[in-house]
Amino acid sequence: MAVRLPRPHRFDVCVAVAGLLCGILFWALGLNLNPGRLLPGAWVLLPLVVMASLELLRRTRPQPAVVLGTVMLVLDQFTVSSIATITMYTDLMYAAALYGTPAAARRLPISTGLVTAGVTIGFLAWWRAPEALLIGFLTGVVSFAPAATGALVRYHRDAAETARLRAEQTALLAEMDRAQAVGAERARMARELHDMVANHLSAIAIHSTAALSLDDPNTSRDALTVIRENSVEGLAEMRRLIGILRDSSGDLEPAAAPTLEGLGSLVEGARNNGLDVTLDGEYGSLPAPVELAAYRIVQESLTNALKHACPGRVTVALAQRDGSLTVAVTSPFGDRDGPRAPGSGAGLVGMRERVALLGGDFEAGPAQDPDSGDGKIWVVRATLPVTEGDRE
Questions:
Q1: Which domain holds residue 304?
Q2: Residue 287 maps to which CATH number?
């Protein structure tokens, strides 16, 4: 099976044609470098034509081209010699260092430098005349100079390519970091929005359902009062969050994050919505992220109890010991007869994410009631590390 050579580059074709035409023109005008050599006359055209043909391979087969070109350069010295042949050989040497393998690009300047030094020393020892230095200089111009130039150009070209790839990689990593930051911010906003508004909307849904299902003016009036209070508070929370999101100049003061000091008001609001809640807490000074996470966990647990819990007592307990804060909320678990608000499960996901960000543990699910023995309760328990080492 015949091997097809790759198609030569357009620039290489132009170089080959220009070199061949110039060489023929110099021969026709009698512009020869070494008249009176062993192979006179038209013999100079043989290395010229072969060297021009090798120019077609300067980019696709640079190493074979420079090897065969060296043979043609030696042959050219036995003819009247053409400057075009020598010039095309320097181009082949340059191309071999630029387009050849990395190993060839490293070896060519070294080997041509050694050849140049060897020729200079050899002719000095043979001729014992200063003219020998001129032979060494010409050898360096024909071989070492183009090889070193090609290797230098290749080095800068590879360095520029490496810098470009590094810039693209840096831009890609920056885009990935930006996407992760946007995703984390979206998740944080979703948790805050859910925790702030879900409690009010759940109370509105349950009391509105009760008002529609009971034909009692007093009950309807009480339900509408609770609905109005929760809708006003929920609307205020929404407006505050939207104001923070819209403000890009930083002129608005950010709303203070809720702390555990607000648990009393949170529990009182749950009682107003019909829950029987008890609060028991033992804790000292806590980092702000831990206080916010604990507050939101209690808030979401009370919201879930309002939507899904059976009639009975809801307990909220906080205890700080061994470098961690434990938050436990229990509520009756089972089928309820009254109205209930729909749930999406986003609350449990949000609580789990908050705890995971602090490196804590979270669990939620049904359990056996230790007081009654035969009943079940829904338990939400989160352990939040409060020491510096745990937070890292």
A1: 260-392
A2: 3.30.565.10
Residue 215 amino acid letter: D
pTM assigned to the model: 0.54
**Is there a domain that residue 371 lies in?**
yes
Alpha-carbon distance of 65 to 63, in angstroms, equals 5
Strands 361-368 and 376-385, sheet pairing: antiparallel
In a domain, 180, yes or no: no
Is residue 148 within 8 Å of residue 109, measured between CB atoms? Answer: yes
Q: Look up tokens 């609770």; give the residue.
A: 226
Report the alpha-carbon distance of residue 177 to residue 193 in Å, rounded: 24
Q: What is the mean pLDDT of each run of 10 residues along the chain (392 residues)?
A: 73 94 91 79 92 94 94 92 94 95 92 94 89 90 95 94 91 87 75 67 67 64 69 69 59 61 85 85 85 88 81 89 90 68 67 88 86 76 75 39
Question: For residue 74, what are the CA distances in angstroms to 43, 47, 48, 71, 227?
Answer: 13, 9, 12, 5, 103
What's phi and psi for 71, nearest 5 deg?
-65, -45
Alpha helices in the chain (DSSP H): 10-29, 45-55, 62-76, 83-99, 102-127, 131-139, 145-213, 217-246, 263-272, 288-308, 346-357, 388-391
Residue that finishes a domain, picked among 112, 142, 168 = 168
Q: Which of 150, 168, 186 is the last residue of a domain?
A: 168
Query: What is the C-alpha R_g of the chain?
Result: 44
Same domain, 152 and 276: no
Sign of CA dihedral 345, 348, 350, 356: negative
